[in-house]
Amino acid sequence: MNLELECATQAARVGGAVLVSRSHDMGAIRTKTNRLDMVTEADVASGVAVCSAIAARLEGARFVVEEPEVYELAGVPRGSLHDPEVWVIDPIDGTTSFVHGFPCYSVSVALLRDGDPVVGAIYNVPADEMVAAASGSGVTLNGMHTRCTDTSTIAEALIMTGFPYDREGLLALQLPVFSEVMSTVHGIRRDGSAAVDCCHVATGRADAYWEFGLQPWDTAAGVVALREAGAIITDHDGGPWKPETRHVVAGNPKVHAELLEVIQRLRVC
Fold it and tell me: Which of 160, 182, 208, 253 has its CA 20 to 30 A from that of 174?
């Protein structure tokens, strides 16, 4: 395991340990963009732990973190998504699940070089599952190498999705796609963590995933896992994932192509 990947997995586990310790005492809960977009004191504590763990091992590391107060509390420098090298951290991906005690939330840690994810670690805390990937080195689930599925058609597929915080705007894009896909596939699953959804595709538990209205820390680590598993992740126009990408489509190559066609045909915004 290379040094950066070792740092990512260690830091993700450290953040996960904080969440376990705070699961019954998550502290004050506030909202950000709207009443559905919550953040807890546990989010911040996890972010501080993750950034501190990386900074202790990698001198000069720079960070982009979902919760901005983490920079000062951890004493780490704020970076840019297009720095030559920057760590992108989501201290809890799935805060709503964490708040309600639903057992699916994760700590996501990615290293970007010139805007491209090259290392990713996603720790599914309640399941105690670590998906780890580095460019050119493959992807593992708890240390065992894994691949995406070879399912041939969307009609045979199990597909993951999520629903946006922006219920007034992006639902107009999501619901027609959901309705058509639901009428075709074996099934659709929604667990509330975009990072975990990417992992389900990378580990062959699902065939594809789409979601609208995401942030770079939601998917950066998952991008590495998906690529190393032989899957594809693009924006909803079919272009390559970039830090600015908000609408994502991922899957094994055949199912990805079919799902992308549905989304492009039904796109209304």
Answer: 253
Answer yes or no: are the C-beta atoms of 56 and 73 closer than 8 Å. no
Q: Which residues of 145-161 are buried (b: 16+ CB within 10 A; e: fewer)?
A: ebebbebeebeebbbbb
Angle value at C-alpha 27, between 108 and 24, nearest 5 degrees: 80
β-bridge pairing 232-235 and 208-211: unpaired
Distance, in Å, from the CA atom of 76 to the CA atom of 64, rounded to the nearest integer, reads 10
Q: For position 172, what pLDDT does the model report?
A: 80
Consecutive H or E run containing 103:
none
- Do residues 106 and 123 lie in contact, with contact meaning Cβ atoms separated by under 8 Å? yes
Shortest CA distance to 86 belongs to which of 112, 68, 110, 65?
Answer: 112
CA nearest 202: which of 181, 174, 221? Answer: 221
Q: What is the pLDDT of residue 269?
A: 44
Residue 58: name the closest of 50, 69, 47, 66 by CA. 50
Report the C-alpha gap between 214 and 216 in whole angstroms: 7
Is it the case that residue 268 has pLDDT exceeding 60? no
pTM exceeds 0.70: yes
User: What spatial distance separates the first Cα and last Cα of the chain, rounded to whole Å?
Assistant: 43
Higher per-residue confidence, 1 vs 151:
151
CA dist., res. 137 & res. 46, Å (int): 27
CB 172 within 8 A of CB 196: no
Helices and strands (H, E) in the chain, number of each type = 8, 14
